[in-house]
Design goal:
Helices cover 44% and strands 16% of the residues. It is of the alpha+beta class. The protein folds into two domains: 37-149 and 351-357, putative nitroreductase (tm1586), domain 2 (NADH Oxidase); 163-245 and 254-342, NADH Oxidase (3-Layer(aba) Sandwich), CATH 3.40.109.10. It binds flavin mononucleotide. Flavin mononucleotide binds next to helix 4 and strand 9. GO terms for molecular function: oxidoreductase activity.
Amino acid sequence: MPTRRSVLKGAAASAALPVAGCGGSSTMASYTALTEEIREPLAADADLMECVRFATLAANSHNTQPWRFDLSANKVAILPDLARRTPAVDPDDHHLHASLGCAAENLLIAARACGLHGAVEARADGAVAIAFDAGRPEATDLFAAIPKRQCTRSDYSGRAVTGSDLALLEQAAAGDGIRLVFLLEKPRIENVLEYVLSANTAQMDDDAFMSELKHWLRFNEAQALAARDGLFSACSGNPTLPGWLVPLVFPFAFTTSAENDRYAAQIRSSSGIAVFISARDDRAHWIEAGRSFQRFALKATALGIAHAFVNQPVEVPASRSEFASWLGLGAEERPDFIVRFGYAPPLPMSLRRDVRDILV
Ligand SMILES: Cc1cc2nc3c(=O)[nH]c(=O)nc-3n(C[C@H](O)[C@H](O)[C@H](O)COP(=O)(O)O)c2cc1C
């Protein structure tokens, strides 16, 4: 998908305007304080309700947080929140169910650190049900990485990831019916870039896609703090803008060619690309793919490796089938996500809604 995040860098530059957000540094301080509060460490004896806070720190498409949590004794059901669908970018709800998988994985890892071992079931109604039993507390490096993980949407340093770290990433991502393909050679990465640029252009030409994306963009701290969801420009390393300025600059500043240049620089500066592939194209596999991605992302974080999605070619249906044949996938396989990785300093963290607002 295009810019989810880069909109305002171009906007500010082309309009040659000062780019202070509403409220200035005190609002940014409130923003940062809230990102830290929602990521406070879990106590060793935390209960399932506390673990839900860690579940919500998972990656999720457009930061819609498309979930509700139903807690009872030793069970948690993560329900799809269909009011938070994004039908333009995700017409079959693939990303929505994958996001539930990401949250389920965080919940399993956090609960295990607190002595609760979970077993997952993908329910026919689209929910992910987890039943917990008491067990030995196991706080892994993936657990420690939960509050530090982020999608880092910036240029990377170009430094290669070592073979032993690639093996650790692959091992962490291993999942039932999911496989990972690494693309590390420059010509292969250039091929992926071509798919990204072509699908990005198609998305930016699509009014429904653009209007849905704008709905989830947060252009300044005040907007981000009010909603506690969506894509805040600072999380992509971009300047913030007062709300009144947005309609004046957005249509002129956000161009396909600037976005494509930006993706080219980001992909070319990455060490490699990982493609996540489901053996079958159904909800149970999409959830597993989300779980697999989340483990990959947490292991990457633990190893000091940054990551970000470049999913455009798997989001536009026509591109997805071309991309799948280029990869040589089997007829029943689906390429779920395309993730670039490498080395870069972190950007500001994203927000999440209050846990009390997402309980059933
Ligand atoms: C299924 C799925 C698809 C996503 N697709 C994209 C994407 O194409 N481009 C992108 O920049 N981020 C993508 N994201 C990342 C989310 O936007 C990100 O997780 C969310 O904004 C929260 O930010 P954080 O992961 O840094 O906490 C995707 C996440 C998921 C789980």
